[in-house]
Design a protein that fits this description.
Elements (H helix, E strand, L loop, with lengths): L21 E5 L2 E4 L4 E4 L14 H11 L10 H13 L5 E5 L2 H16 L3 E5 L17 H4 L10 H4 L2 E4 L4 H11 L3 E6 L15 H11 L3 E5 L12 H4 L6 E4 L10 E5 L1 H4 L18 H15 L3 H21 L5 E5 L2 E5 L8 H4 L4 H13 L2 E2 L8 E2 L6 H14 L4
Parallel strand pairs: 3-13, 5-6, 5-7, 7-8, 8-9
Antiparallel strand pairs: 1-2, 2-3, 4-10, 9-10, 11-12, 12-14
Helix pairs in contact: 1-10, 2-10, 11-14
This protein binds pyridoxal-5'-phosphate.
């Protein structure tokens, strides 16, 4: 396998050393094949909000698997998960299940082009919307980590219709729209960025985007693959009261199994085949086991008190920021509810440019020191870390203690 891995950031290239092979997980902990244990803040890059091997989730998978792994025909649980998602995010009057976040965003773009009859899309610098050609331009996550702003193998013709703008910069949005609005089908955005590290929208950026897109007949796509069901039983669209035209989901709605979804108003979704002319399909889409895992996860989340993980995460991040300040370290702990990044730079991180001021060499040292002490953070500066409902106060206190001891030498 290239780099020994099936997804690039797992190879530890950005932090040095060799990847650690994991054997099993339970709650907030993962265990490698050498028997070492780690408090896990990666959580499979976000999906495992209930922690590893949650009893009810696993038993739901096992029970479903015993009845068959795939039918290639509709099954009732697909309707159940669709109803539950729709109840939490009413902007999705209709939705379609796919197999990954990449498929969700790729399909959302095609849908926006189909609905508007326009070709151009706007994405933000450092944002990651999966690895489809048209969206792999100045992308975050692994692409940022490896210093490959645009992947090789992506033809120029695939990206000529992609306009790249800096996150949180309304002036640039206004001028791009003034020049191109007759050609722009959609703006796609991570409403809270996770893939350049955690960067929150400021100065009502999302609200302003909603106003200007509506004014010019441009669709607003919220890529909530990471943020959906992460901060509340819903998305950033609920918290910020901004209704996107199309929403993309993934990660948490699969609870650790491969899934994605895209949805919109009935009017927009009726463009999708078989009702409309926009084609999109999948042999394993709506897979019963993935759906069972996601459905159980969402049912548990519906009754969960998100305040618990949000406030535990605040406790962790406030403590790390205070320690860094007391030791005069140039560190900004960027947090949005239960998602955070320790940036090795001082000052506000509000876009990709300011995120890139961070010292990746220091992050690498920090990552290794934490790992040696049994704490697993994202193996890259430009990624989000997460809390799960399985993390305990004790986990947090231990993490703070380790941070305090290792950060002195970094
Ligand atoms: C993870 C992610 C994707 C891609 O999802 P995959 O399931 O890895 O294809 C797309 N958008 C955002 C915001 C993500 O965080």
């Amino acid at each position: 396998m290239p780099g020994g891995v099936n997804s690039p950031v797992r190879a530890f290239k950005a932090v040095g050393g060799n990847p650690v092979f994991m054997k099993n997980g339970k709650g907030s902990k993962i265990y490698d094949i050498d028997g070492n244990s780690y408090i896990d803040y990666v959580l499979s890059w976000g999906p495992l909000i209930l922690g590893h091997a949650h009893k009810q989730v696993i038993s739901s998978i096992v029970k479903t698997a015993a009845s068959g792994t795939s039918f290639g025909a509709p099954s009732v649980s697909e309707n159940e998960i669709a109803q539950l998602i729709k109840s939490a995010m009413p902007s999705m009057e209709k939705l379609r299940l796919v197999n990954s976040g990449t498929e969700a965003t790729m399909s959302a773009i095609r849908l926006a082009r189909s609905y508007t009859g326009k070709d151009k899309i706007v994405k933000f610098q450092g944002a990651y919307h999966g690895h489809s050609d048209g969206l792999l331009v100045e992308a975050g996550s692994g692409a940022a980590t490896l210093g490959v702003p645009t992947s090789s193998g992506v033809p120029k013709s695939s990206v000529v219709d992609t306009i790249i703008l800096p996150f949180n910069d309304m002036k640039k949005v206004e001028s791009a729209i003034a020049a191109n609005h007759k050609k722009i089908a959609a703006i796609i955005i991570e409403p809270v960025c996770g893939n350049m590290g955690v960067v929150a929208p400021i100065n009502k950026f999302l609200q302003k985007l909603r106003v200007i897109t509506r004014q010019y007949g441009i669709l607003l796509i919220f890529d909530e693959v990471m943020t959906g069901f992460r901060f509340c039983f819903g998305g950033v669209q609920n918290m910020q009261k901004v209704k996107p035209d199309i929403t993309c989901l993934g990660k948490i709605i699969g609870g650790g199994m491969p899934i994605g979804a895209y949805g919109a108003s009935k009017r927009i979704m009726d463009c999708v085949a078989p009702l409309g002319s926009m084609y999109q399909a999948g042999t394993l889409s709506g897979n019963p086991i993935a759906v069972a895992c996601g459905l159980k996860t969402l049912r548990i989340l519906k009754k969960a008190d998100y305040n618990k993980i949000n406030s535990l995460c605040a406790k962790l991040c406030n403590a790390m920021q205070k320690i860094a300040k007391d030791k005069r370290k140039k560190i900004t702990v960027s947090r949005f509810h239960s998602m955070f990044t320790v940036f090795f730079t001082d000052g506000l991180v509000s876009d990709y440019k300011s995120a890139c001021l961070a010292r990746t060499d220091k992050y690498a040292d920090y990552f290794s020191a934490m790992m040696e002490n049994g704490i697993y953070f994202a193996p890259s500066q430009f990624e989000a870390n997460f809390l799960s409902f399985a993390h305990t106060k004790k986990d947090i206190e231990y993490t703070i203690e380790v941070f305090n001891s290792v950060i002195t030498d970094i």
